[in-house]
Amino acid sequence: MGRKVFVTVGTTRFDALIKAVDTRACKAAIASHGYSSMVLQIGHGSYLPTKDDGDSLVEVNFFTFAADLKEHLKSADLVISHAGSGSIFETLRMGKPLIVVVNEALMDNHQAELAEELAAQGYLMYAFPSTLEDVITKMNLNLLVPYEPSDASAVVTSLSSFLGFHN
């Protein structure tokens, strides 16, 4: 079994991301890095990806929703995700290489700011649907920095003390 890519849009509708990974050029870029299969979680989207384009660059399967995405994340060698903070941090905590795709259609796009900041810190790569194929083509996963979740216990202790709660 070859290396796997998992693509997720979470609970959103993000057809632009699904269409971007479903292009022949994007599949070729994915295959050029040694990935042989791709599972897409398409959420509320109406665009249905091509399972077999005849050339079999990458085997494609998809589904709408699952009770839990952890198993898909665990089995993935690369994750391509929408820019929701829950999806981002769950993937980073699992130590999976991550490309975050920002939905340009959103107003007041705080997701773009989060993706840009985490990319600047070296934890992930980010793209827009229109640049995804180029980001995949040029990606070097060896440059990513492992994400180390911070210890929030000091903040909790301080807040508890401020609020008058004692351990």
UniProtKB/TrEMBL annotation:
It comes from Ceratopteris richardii. It comes from the Eukaryota. This is Glycosyl transferase family 28 C-terminal domain-containing protein. One of its GO terms (biological process) is dolichol-linked oligosaccharide biosynthetic process. InterPro entries: Glyco_trans_28_C, UDP-GlcNAc_transferase. GO terms for molecular function: hexosyltransferase activity. PANTHER family: UDP-N-ACETYLGLUCOSAMINE TRANSFERASE SUBUNIT ALG13 (PTHR47043). Gene3D superfamilies: Glycogen Phosphorylase B. Residues 5-154 form the Glycosyl transferase family 28 C-terminal domain. It holds the Pfam family Glyco_tran_28_C. GO terms for cellular component: UDP-N-acetylglucosamine transferase complex.
